[in-house]
Please model this.
Amino acid sequence: MLKLHGFAQSGNTFKVAFLLRALGVAWQPVPMSFADFAAGATRDPAWREGVNEMGEVPVLELDNGVKITQSGVILTMLAEQHGRFGGTNADEKREVLRWLFFDNHKFSSYFATWRFMKSFAAKAPDPAVAAFLKSRIDSAFFVVEKHLAGRQHIVGDSLTIADMSLSGYLFYPADESGYVLEERFPNIAAWRERLRAAPGWGDPYEILPGERVAPKW
Ligand SMILES: N[C@@H](CCC(=O)N[C@@H](CS)C(=O)NCC(=O)O)C(=O)O
Model:
């Protein structure tokens, strides 16, 4: 059975769980407690050596023990293997890839970093760093907000891994990031609501293992 290394707070892990569930593939979590992650479990040399040299989750472990990392690669691999959620023609597949790159570089990445600082970091966020990250988040969110005007999905007219990837961090409670999408990004908020009804969707804190942690700052 496929094994997914990750933890509940990890939106990148959630992206993969969303797809596995949508595909109806059997999988089991390899839990890591948030406390262990925060204490540096993925940066441990032995963990890097045995699981992922990049020091990151998610990691999808195949039946033969091969470990695949980077959510975008995992999503693409599974979508290709199953012929689902990867785009219905060559143009859509390229569009999906384009949005996966954008997500990894500018959308999930800055937002996840900011949420981590605001909710889980040991020290309160530095105001200058917070201002920088929020300006980067806003510009990435406005790109997606505009793109979603008049569209139901990120690519084409059905659910793809681009939707799963870009939305990966948006289902966590608003107090973890301070972003209330309805107030400034109504198209993103409406798309998020549609995704809650999509096949495979579930609340990250219910479908991934691990304890909830109250936001700190
Ligand atoms: N681009 C990577 C990002 C993975 C990532 O940043 N994962 C976080 C947890 S959600 C992590 O393990 N961070 C460890 C670190 O940055 O030291 C992906 O999409 O898989």
Observations:
- The first strand starts at residue 2 and ends at 6.
- DSSP finds eleven helices and four strands in the chain.
